[in-house]
Amino acid sequence: MRKIITAILLIFALLWVLVPFAFAEEAAAATAEKGSNVFYYAMAALAAGIGVGIGALGCGIGQGVATSKACEGIARNPGASGKVTTSLIIGLAMIESLTIYALVVALIILFVNPFGKLLG
Do the beta carbons of residue 52 and residue 91 sit within 8 Å? Predict the structure, then answer.
């Protein structure tokens, strides 16, 4: 059963990576005479999605580990719960800011076209 699920997930991952190439080439062929750069936008959308996904994944893991260790610390020493909670909230805010930075970079990739002046 595990091999089947792995194979299905692998197929979905390959489709997720390869489908933008097919649509970008088809759209670029349809608008080739206009000098459109649809391929750039397709790759920018793919890069933004992967970048935000990896950023959110890493920050989610970090937040989970931090919360778990804070709960363990409070369970071992309930008297220090105020200090632990304050440090936890500050740390989680710092971790969350990394996800927001990844989102900002993804939005810059999506909305800034470096080839706009070159291609017309």
Answer: no
DSSP for 6-61, written as a single string: HHHHHHHHHHHHHHHHHHHHHHHHHTGGGT--HHHHHHHHHHHHHHHHHHHHHHHH
Arithmetic mean of pLDDT, 48-58: 89
Contact 72, 7 (CB under 8 A): no
Give the separation between CA 43 and CA 109, rounded to whole angstroms: 10
The CATH architecture one would assign to domain 2-119 is Up-down Bundle (1.20)
The distance of Cα 34 from the centroid of its chain, to the nearest Å, equals 32
The pTM assigned to this predicted structure is 0.61
Asked if 32 and 13 touch (Cβ cutoff 8 Å), the reply is no
pLDDT in tens, 56-87: 999 999 999 999 999 999 999 999 989 999 99
Cβ within 8 Å of residue 58, ≥6 positions away: 98
